[in-house]
Amino acid sequence: MTKNREPWWKKSVIYQIYPRSFQDSNGDGIGDIRGIINRLDYLEDLGIDAVWLSPVYRSPQDDNGYDISDYRDIDPMFGTLGDMEELIEKAKQRGIRIIMDLVLNHTSDEHPWFQEAKKGRDNPFHDYYVWRDGVEGELPNDMRACFGGSAWQWVPETGRYYFHQFSVKQPDLNWENPKVRREIYDMILWWMDKGVGGFRLDVIDQIAKEPDRKITSNGPRLHEFIQELSRETFQKGDLITVGETWGASPQIARKYSNPDGSEFSMVFQFEHMELDQQAGGQKWDLEQLSFRRLKEVLNKWQTELYGCGWNSLFWDNHDLPRIVSRWGNDGRYRAESAKMLAILLHGMQGTPYIYQGEELGMTNIRYEIGEYRDIETLHMYQERLEKGYPPEEIMKSIYAKSRDNARTPMQWSREAQAGFTKGIPWMKVNPNYREIYAEDQINDPDSIYSCYKYLVNLRKEYSVFADGRFFMLAEDSEQIFAYVREDEKHRLLVVCNFFEEQADCGLQAEWEGMELVISNYKDAGGEMLRPYEARMYLARK
Ligand code: GLC
Ligand code: CA
């Protein structure tokens, strides 16, 4: 691949849509592709360049579409292939690319490949999946699945166990099999022909598993597989590709996002999102965020990928709780803290992702257990109950970390069901929708939405956002997050008070002579930063 100019996607901002919760168009209570088409005005106004669409393929919906039974069709719940083509086309007319979610580590157990594979070990599709011989009741080893239980499932017809890193309905594909890889490449080329603008690669670091050695992520053949995948598909087009890589270090990320284009455009890694859980525990084992660690981790990624890799910038997605509830303040300072978190993140190097509703400051939920829908949450609840955890303690973890926090319907208006559906929503709307909704914010220059919109535009206007070198300031401060970005043309300064108590930042000399381009308080303010205050300054050289 020749790379003699900076790729277009370095200046882009991506908006993630979780289709079932975005906009319902036909009153069945489930968001759909037509609903997204009807909301293109909104996306265009926000100024984003691409939409990452969580999976809309045909699926039994065991894991909300991350269990695909036909990669070349759309689930009727979301619409038709024709709707999808229309979305790609209409989005393109507005300069918005559609990024499809590729789930290549596993399929649904209802995929025809698996239906064949489980018929017997001589079936031509058997080797599309990962099997081990055994006798019933004697597991090949003690590996656990991410959604609870053993990673092995017995199939009597074959006398073998299949391997699944996620639910029992998500059997792992066997990437060692060249036929599997070829099928996948053909499918990707088929979508590329339809004009999609890119792909997000679901748990891609787990494809090269070696269960006999208990290896799941970063298996020995991982980069060989990814390079072949990239060569056979992505490199034939002008795409944006992003690998979901939970277990990446900056060193590994340099491979994934090598500027030579041999793997992906960028990584989507989570080190900064795992700082409020107990060491060695699961995300459910809560611990207060270590602010010092957050600064260290973000600094490390900004510095160690500079010039040799590319990162995603995000606080939220469909697997994470709402950031304003998590590390901001979803009460009195909801607007201030949501904007502070946006300003802090959007000044950095990388590609920013805005997850639906984040731009409105949507918050976490506290529902009865029966109102949760997420397979991971429900499995964990059962598992911990059986282990004897008190229900209140389990609920506390769910309030803090359940994926359903991010999956409540999008809050469009203060009409019934937040304008999301005319029917009964598949999951209960957050009861605060009469205070937090898009219509209220779109034309309000002081809204969280307008703050995001402004940040999106700044990135397009000034090269320093994409290119500038990163320098951390006030490194030892327990309260201030401050940094500088610098390229030949500009100097950018971001100063944030991450907490509710006011803080003397001692950085006045840094912003002397600079222009304040955005802040979350109406008047400029001085050395003392008010609760969650954030400011961004710019100077031309
Ligand atoms: C990824 C997805 C998540 C899904 C899992 C299994 O982490 O983001 O939603 O459950 O992979 O496909
Ligand atoms: Ca619908």
Model description:
The chain has 541 residues and is an alpha/beta fold. The protein folds into three domains: 8-106 and 178-197 and 227-451, Glycosidases (TIM Barrel), CATH 3.20.20; 112-163, Oligo-1,6-glucosidase, Domain 2 (Oligo-1,6-glucosidase, domain 2, Alpha-Beta Complex); 468-540, Golgi alpha-mannosidase II (Immunoglobulin-like, Sandwich), CATH 2.60.40.1180. 27% of the residues lie in helices and 16% in strands. It is built from 16 helices and 20 strands. The protein has helices spanning 33-38, 40-46, 81-93, 112-117, 178-193, 222-232, 250-256, 291-304, 323-326, 334-346, 375-386, 391-401, 438-442, 448-461, 464-467, 508-511; strands spanning 14-17, 50-53, 57-58, 70-74, 97-102, 131-133, 152-155, 160-163, 198-201, 240-244, 266-268, 312-313, 351-355, 469-473, 480-486, 490-497, 503-504, 515-519, 528-529, 534-540. Strands 11-10-9-5-2-1-13-12 form an eight-stranded parallel sheet, with helices on one face. It has a five-stranded antiparallel sheet with strand order 14-15-16-20-18. Helix 6 (222-232) links the parallel strand 9 and strand 10. The longest helix is centred in the middle third of the chain and has 16 residues, at 178-193. The two termini are 34 Å apart. 49% of the residues are buried. Bound molecules: alpha-D-glucopyranose and calcium ion.
Summarize the structure.
The protein folds into 3 domains: 344 residues, Glycosidases (TIM Barrel); 52 residues, Oligo-1,6-glucosidase, Domain 2 (Oligo-1,6-glucosidase, domain 2, Alpha-Beta Complex), CATH 3.90.400; 73 residues, Golgi alpha-mannosidase II (Immunoglobulin-like), CATH 2.60.40.1180.
